[in-house]
Structure formats: structure tokens, C-alpha cells
Amino acid sequence: QLLSSGQRQLLLCETLTETVYGDRGQLIKSKERKVFLLNDMLVCANINFKGQLEISSLVPLGPKYVVKWSTALPQVQVVEVGQESGAYDKDNVVIHNAGAKKHAPAGQSSHNKVYLGPPRLFQELQDLQKDLAVVEQITLLISTLHGTYQNLNMTVAQDWCLALQRMMKVKEEEIHSANKCRLRLLLPGKPDKSGRPISVMVVFITPNPLSKISWVNRLHLAKIGLREENQPGWLCPDEDKKSKAPFWCPILSCRMPAFSSKALDLQLGAAVHNPVQSSLLGFSAVSTSLPQGYLWVGGGQEGAGGQVEIFSLNRPMPRTVKSFPVASPVLCMEYIPEGEAADTRDSQSTPDQSPASPHPTVCLGLRDGSIAVYGSVDAGTQCLLTCKSPAMQPVLCLKHSPRYLFAGLQDGTVAAYPRSNGGLWDAAGQPTRLAVGTGPVRALLTLEETLWASCANQVTVLDATSLRPQQTFEAHPDAEAGVTHMIKAGSGVWMAFSSGSSIRLFHTETLEHLQEINIATRTTFVLPGQKHVRVTSLLICQGSLWVGTDQGIIVLLPVPRLEGIPKITGKGMVSLNGHGGPVEFLAMALSTLAPDVLKGDQEEEEEAEEDKPAELDGPQPREMRKKGILLQYRLRSTSHLPGQLLSVRDVPAGGTPAHAEEDGSIYEMADDPDVWVRSRPCARDAPRKEISSVAIVSGGRGYRNFNAESPRRGGGDADSTLLIWQVPLML
User: Fold this and answer.
1) I want to staple 244 with a disulfide (CB 3.0 to 4.6 A). Which of 161, 209, 248, 405 is the partner?
2) By the 8 A CB rule, do 282 and 303 touch?
3) How remote is the C-alpha of 38 from its chain's centroid?
4) Which pTM value belongs to this model?
5) Do domains 10-53+62-81+116-226 and 236-257+484-597+691-730 have the same CATH topology?
6) If you write DSSP's letter for every residue of 671-706 in order, what string do you get?
7) Which CATH number describes the domain made up of 10-53+62-81+116-226?
8) Which tens digits make up the pLDDT trace of 609-633?
9) CB proximity list for 408: less than 8 A, separation 6 or greater
10) Which residues pair with 486 in a beta bridge?
11) Is the Cβ–Cβ distance between 449 and 463 less than 8 Å?
């Protein structure tokens, strides 16, 4: 019944194990449930394996599902283990554990001490913290000893402290691990007698960490998908909605001003994403945040200075972390990843040599002819280098190769800056000037062995190493239609032009013209009668070609994902969310989740069965456990320390026996505390498949909704605005 509604769509469905805990964290019961995520509600069903026999075939019908509960999506909250504080209004909400016979005593809930299993881990962590405080006091007492004792001294006492700190870190990792397969949902229940709302906590165990990430991510996006601007967010002229796959279109997740300064009338120039993996992000945060890293947005005022705004994307909504002026408006940007920027052997250079840059950098091309190279946000975003273009020509586009930074200039030349020893560009020497034509070089494209540069309606192909021109071809029959954008897709290059509403596809090897698409036939679906459309931005992302136009409309065209010829076959779709003016840029933010997010599947399975021994990872037999844990960190033995051995037993002839090696490595941690504290992936972890997080950013004047029924149809403010679309994590 719930699924048969025409408007409903099934986004995700999986068999999860519902677990019920007692007030001491003990597992009371667990049962398999079928959980369905629809586009507007979450449904949990009992699995009825007893299905009726079909007399004709004598084959039992598959499992039948009986709905246990269903909740509207906006009322479902994901609450992580240990992160309860900000998830709900604790003063006005009483939480009950779903399925538990006895609720926590009234006095307990009033003190916010809600037992949401497994509290055993938290109790053990608190015990370790208390024990550390005691051992620190013992250490102070040991420092007052008059005698010198081999196995009772400050070295040993400090080792105890280090060992306890390590155990606390391991326990925190266990708590982190408990989140990996535990999906805890806060659902609305019936109010109590006094009228206070009751929230019900339901806990599911997912089959693996990937499943948990998938549920949190899809729940998050499905809720955003219910917002007015996404109902609908795209117009598909030729296809039946019922045949659509889950999350068939990108979801507009946020819109916001591009610049924090309201006083200046700033125009947008360009944007790039600087991906940064943050191990500090919690397990659930990576499932709901935008692609990790920083979004750099540049622009400026006509005839005045420029501005750069940097946003942190390590959250569901971007946040400005830095904003600074530059000498002239920013016209283009290029992000250069780590490793490409320098040979790491050069990074040992002394500070007074030229600045080495093995770290990621962002290059800005300015209207006044300068190129500014900045370090990444984590390194303080200092300006590492400034180059001047020959004859101070405005820098219209930037692209890099392993050997050069290429700048397309206003006067028809390309300046090629070679890498210096430090990995940055050689600012002292004159760049190599490559004459391409007489008009501005508006677009550059670096392929494996060639550089493509456009001037008017011609494209020149140069050898990327020798910088010699190989050939020039005409990209458009109209001499006035200058090539403004070039983007590679498989074995083809899509191009956009300064006039006309077409985009054209060329083969990378033969340079043959393969296809032409008129964008105006798509935009008329939302703006009938508007035939004069110009393409102002292009982007390829995960099998789709994004096309931004001068009317603020964004069109999405499907291209084959394979490395073949990316000819467009479908009609595509048009976004009902766009800008009040031209789409100045389309940028992609892409990051891969840190592999250690998926570490420890085996531990999670043990944790899910509530079967794990209290002693962490140590594979110790049961009878050994009662003896306790050997509290040591670095010391394998005390025999090398001065003083006599404090012992009831006689010292053996061979001196003090060293502790067995396995005693000191119970936790299989690296001995170096720096490595250990930073929690780097252990060498024994097999490499796992990466998870890709993708968002698409458009920039333009204001926001406009093109939906005919929308009350917000029309312009709105004219400030430079960013729109950000998300697609589900690629698992």
C-alpha cells in the first residue's frame, strides 16, 4: 500500500538487525527487520517467513512483510554513539529504548542519563580516566622515593601513564568502531501523560560499515530532497518519472552568497575545490558533509581590486574560513594537487632557498596580468609566489602539466612557466611565449601529451613537452564564434562558443567533428520563446555534461561513462533552480573518504554480537583474562635500569628475565606514539575500495526558480550566489 502510491519512490531497502538493550547495556533481544527508505518516509517491517503455500506450485511465496512502524522522514534523526548532546532538546524530550520492557527510572531521565547501549564502552573509558588520575598521583609519590629500584622508579611510572593513555585511545577507537555498524534512529513516539513528547530510540545493526554510511547518506539526501526547491528540482521532458532510478537527479543542497562582503558589488570569476582528507571528522559526518576540503571562489569589481573567499566543506553547509583581497579581479583558477607540485626529495631544502611546495597549491590568474600561487588552507594560505605575464596581459585561463603552468593571455599568446627545483614555477626567468593567434586565448586544455589552446574559432594543438605547435583546426564555421570552453570526456572534447547556442564534440586523436547539440531546444522547456541562448560554462561529472547558459539556466545531458566517444543520446534535463544572470562557472568538488573510515569490519561483527572481551584486541584465552592487563607501553623489561630489583623471589642467575614480546604488543599498535596517536592506517589493513563524495557548484548573479508554479519564480537578489548540488556517495 505504501509503495503503490504513484508519487512514492523506493530509495533503499535492506535487511537490518534491530537490537534492544537493557539499562546496563546488556543485549535483551535482536531480530531481523526489513527497512525501506522511501522518498518521504521510513518504514520498518517484520519479516514473515511462514508465507502461505501456493497449492498449484507447492512453492512457498517469499517472505511477506508486515509493517511494524512508519515515520515521515523529516521526523527521523540519526544519533551517533557518544554524540547525543546536540541531537535533541533534552529538557523537553524523554527517550525510551524501543522494545525494552522497563524504561530508565524517572529520576534518571531527568538527569539526562539515558542508557542507549552499549554504555559498557563509555563506562570502561571513564574507569581508565579515573585510573590514570590515580596512577599520576602514584607517580608523584614514586618521585619522593629515597632508594633507587630497578622496577619501581619514574621511568616505570611514566610508562604506566603512557600505557593507560594508549588504552584510552584504543577505547575511543572502539567507541568510534561501535558507530560503524550501528544505525541509531530517534523517532517520535506518543506523548506521556503530562504531554511531554516521547522520542523512541531504535537501534539497527547494519551488515557492514558501507551499509551504515549508505543509510546515513541516503537519509540525509532524501530529507533535503523534500525541500520546496527540490519538488521538483529538474524537468525531464521525455521520460516517465516512475521508471526513474533512486536519486535520479542531483539534489540542490544549499544556496548562499559567494562573498561575505556585502559592501562591494563583486562579480564572480572562477572556483576550484582543494580536497583535504580530515581524519577528525566523525563517521557520520563524512556521510552527510559535502566533499571534504575547501572551495576557493574568486572574483572582483570591474576596474578595481579582486577578492577570494574560501569555504570549508567539512559539513552539510559550507562555512567561510577565510576571505582576502587581491590586487586585481580573479579571472581564472587552477588547483595543483600534492605530489605533482614537487619531487618530495627537494622538500629537504633549507628555509632560505626558494620555497619548496610539495603541498597542494591554488593558482589565481588576475586581470592585471599577474599569477598568484597560494598554499593550501591548512598551511595558512600564504602567497608562495607571484609571476607577471609577458607585457602584463590579463590572464584568461590557467592549466598545468607535470612540467609547466600554462597561462592563456589576452594578446593571443600562451605563457609556459617551467617548474623550478622547489616544485613551484620559475618566476625569475622569462616564460616561454607560444603565439597562438591575434585574439584572446580563452580556453586551454591539457591532454596526456598535448596542449589545446583556442583563439577565436580556431584551436591549436601543441606538444606538451617540446611546446611546438602540431596543427590548427577550425572548431566553428563562424569566425565570430570564438571557443570559450573545452572539456575532455572519454576520447572526445566538448566545446562551447562565444555566440550561438550550440556545443560541439571533437575527437581527441583525429580532431574530427563528431556531434553538435543545440542547447536552446532544452532551455525552451522552462523559458518558452527564448531562442537566443549562449553557453557560458561546461563541466563533466560522473556521466553527465553540465551546461550553464547566459539565461541562468543549467542543462544536464547524459554522456557515456566509458572511454569511448562521448556522444549524447538522451534529451537530458533542465534544472528548475538557476541564477538570475549568466552561469559564470560550474565547478566540481570531489573527495574520497579516508580508507580508515572502513577499517575493522571484523571487530564490528564481534561488537555487533556483543561478544567482544573487555580486553580490547588481545587474543588471550579466557583463564588468562582474570590476571589483568600488563600495564606497559615502551618498556619490554626493567633489567637495563639502575638499582636493585624489588621482588620476593630470588633473582635468576641470568639477571632479570625480560617480559615476553607479546606482552608489550597486546594492542598491536605501533611503538612510536606519534604514529600511534595520529591513528594512521595499520599496515595489516588490506586496501579497500574508495568511496567518492561529489558536489557540483554553480556561480552567478542571484538565485532564480524556473518552476512555473513556484511563488519564487523570477529574479530575487542580484548578489553573486553559489548553488551546490549533491549526488549520493559512490559506494
Assistant:
1) 248
2) no
3) 24
4) 0.76
5) no
6) S-HHHHHTTPPPTTSPP----EEEEEEEEEES-EE-
7) 2.30.29.30
8) 433 333 333 333 333 334 456 777 7
9) 395, 396, 397, 398, 414, 440, 441, 442, 443, 444, 453, 454
10) 495
11) yes
